[in-house]
What does this fold into?
Amino acid sequence: MMASIAANIEQLEKVLTGEIASAGDEAALEAVRVSALGKKGAVSELLRGLGGMSPEDRQINGPLINGLKIRVTDEINARREILKAQALEERLATETVDVTLPVREPAVAQGRVHPVAQVVDELIAIFADMGFSIAEGPHIENDNYNFTALNIPEDHPARQEMDTFYFDPREDGSRRLLRTHTSPVQIRTMLSTKPPIRIIAPGRVFRCDYDQTHTPMFHQVEGLVIDKQANLGNLKWVLEEFLKAFFEVPNVKMRFRASHFPFTEPSMEVDVGCTRVGNELKIGEGDGWLEILGCGMVHPNVLRNVGLDPAEYQGFAWGMGIDRIAMLKYGIPDLRTFFASDLRWLKHYGFAALDLPSLAGGLSR
It folds into this structure.
């Protein structure tokens, strides 16, 4: 009887050892463990059989069966470690990383600042250095702020629907509109702020126009100075310093030509000296001229409309298209591409997100 049990244990161990060695993965090995050591496993059945034996037989067979259990458990654990190592090697072989590939740029490095936003930041840096503050106003305006207070007569072409986007009339007959310039910001500032005033007003404006150099929505910046001593000499200095800083040149040639704007008197167009070398436009040198902006002394009627006495206060103002000067500075040929939402265009003409323009560090790094 004892010899029979010992033979059975030896035979069972050979079978289990072979199954353990042939297990190809951890799932197969687990199946062998359950068949041997599980609740209904072969080794567990032998252990349960000890209860029906005499004390003498248990004393002999107990160590044999427990020894089998220990050896089978150790073999299973050893095989499991081998299978884990093999699985890791296979995974590493299939998930290799080629360290010779270039590192992907982080999101902040891939992002680009739009040229319009860049130029607005440049304008703010330049004029803030001269002591100007930034003023803003609503895109939807009324007729008074957009036209009447600016001394624009009732029959002026700018008031026609061919040039201005109007909303439907209200019950009282008045009509709101999308502002056609940022000049209403000047009116709002003069009504709410006591002179001296020194502001620039950048922002979106809207006009019924669309071609290579015009779009229905574009960006404009206007400047305004109101005090008791403002004069054309101050205006010329401000514009000259601005142009030198913006185009990053040591000197500029400027030419003032008589013009007409309802809100300034006298009114002038400003040309800047330039030259073309192939397709490149160079500002500040050469014998050519390029119209860049309009300006003038604030009309006395505009001062009266905001409650200022023109006998005591005077001022000057100017305005220019932000998109236009961006095109000139950065060689962008078509205004419509500013609003085309083309990521390739933005990647080419855009600016690094964290390179903020400053006069000390350079505007267009």
